[in-house]
Amino acid sequence: MSDIESPTRDWLRKLLTPDFLVHEGWSGWHKHEGEKVLYDLVIEPRPHLIERGFDRGWVVVEVKLFNHGERKKPDVKIRDMLWQCVSYSYSQIELPAGGHVNPLFTLYYLGGTGLDARYQPELTALHHFVQRGGVGSLEVNKNGSWSIRFGGSFYYRSAVGKGPHHVGTKRQIGSAR
Fold first, then answer.
1. What are the counts of helices (DSSP H) followed by strands (DSSP E) for the chain?
2. Residue 144: which domain range?
3. Residue 116 resides in a domain
4. Angle CA 151–156–157, to nearest 5
5. Who has greater pLDDT, 60 or 176?
6. How many domains is the chain partitioned into structurally?
7. pTM above the 0.85 mark?
8. Strand partners, 21
9. Are the C-beta atoms of 171 and 89 separated by less than 8 Å?
């Protein structure tokens, strides 16, 4: 089976490398089920980002391609992707040097030709919901700058720095944050 996401991961790795150590092929374990999980990318902020407020730690990035005319229904693919991200948010990353760490949060990146506009409202609604489980989006602008967003708030923008809210790093447990 071919790895159709590989070119997108390669492009994303090159784009993020000035700001992050980018690791591909890392795995971990789901905390509750003990099931092994494989991450598309795990990124660590470089010192200059930490100095500008980015929290120290590891971030899981899930890459998904959305292309017009796919067989799988986009709404199902959206829900599957976001649930995968929630699961990864509650996993432990296995470090190559030994030991396990919790991810700061999990991000999804949408690649491909794009999501059909009629499915955008569902993605937006679910995006606001899954932020409570430490899941946000990684977005890349046409000029190559990137941003990390949870719900309607930015955690970090490469051109601006850390946002004013502590979104992303807090998990909502029950009805309390």
1. 4, 12
2. 6-162
3. yes
4. 110
5. 60
6. 1
7. yes
8. 44
9. yes
| Contact by Cβ (8 Å): 58, 44 | yes
Q: Are 39 and 92 in contact (CB under 8 A)?
A: no
Kindly state the tokens that stand for 107: 């991000």
139 within 8 A of 158, measured Cβ to Cβ: no
CATH assignment at residue 57:
3.40.1350
Residue burial 11-42, b: 16+ Cβ < 10 Å; e: rest? ebbebbeebbebbeebebeeeeeeeebebbbb
Across the chain, which distance is largest between two alpha carbons, in Å? 45
pLDDT of residue 99: 93
At 135, the amino acid letter reads V
Edge to edge, the sheet with strand 153-157 lists 20-24, 41-45, 59-65, 105-111, 135-140, 146-150, 153-157, 161-162
